[in-house]
């Protein structure tokens, strides 16, 4: 007699990953993601610090310092929305995002809704990432607005690719495992890690851009001087 396989009655809730070098982590990272979580009903966002980002200059702070700052920022804001996955920091090779999401998909299973939070600037450059367009096979893209960036891709073919995957229905994000792009009307904060580093290099304070513990840690460690 054949075995009966019982399917789950409901899909697990949508969870999302938010990657970055976090050199340092700042309010421009945190506040838009909190707003995004409210828009789409996220109960958990996992911060994924990068070790060796292949598409950009290498971080000034060490992996250990950047992880410490992420931990401090989350302690400052409190709540249960965020957690941390440090798997990429434990790699010696470049952090290819698609490789990480292939692993995550194997861990979560084929049907679990999974999102990847990126900024509008990253969406526009996604075709230049290593196997960047394949990410939609593994997850949804949850896109935060960024000051100064439009919504048009670089070619008509890429714009058609985008439009075929756009959704404004957050219910689909919660029920489908992958394949959709959601452009979130999140707050556009003119804060960046590069701006913070530049201000530090010039001897200027950044208290309104960083959580208190992160600002103190940067001062104590003498970072970005």
Automatic annotation (TrEMBL):
The keyword Transferase applies. This is Probable nicotinate-nucleotide adenylyltransferase. Pathway: Cofactor biosynthesis; NAD(+) biosynthesis; deamido-NAD(+) from nicotinate D-ribonucleotide: step 1/1. Keywords: ATP-binding, NAD, Nucleotide-binding, Nucleotidyltransferase, Pyridine nucleotide biosynthesis, Transferase. Its EC number is 2.7.7.18. It comes from Sodalis ligni. InterPro entries: Cyt_trans-like, NadD/NMNAT, Rossmann-like_a/b/a_fold. Catalyzes the reversible adenylation of nicotinate mononucleotide (NaMN) to nicotinic acid adenine dinucleotide (NaAD).
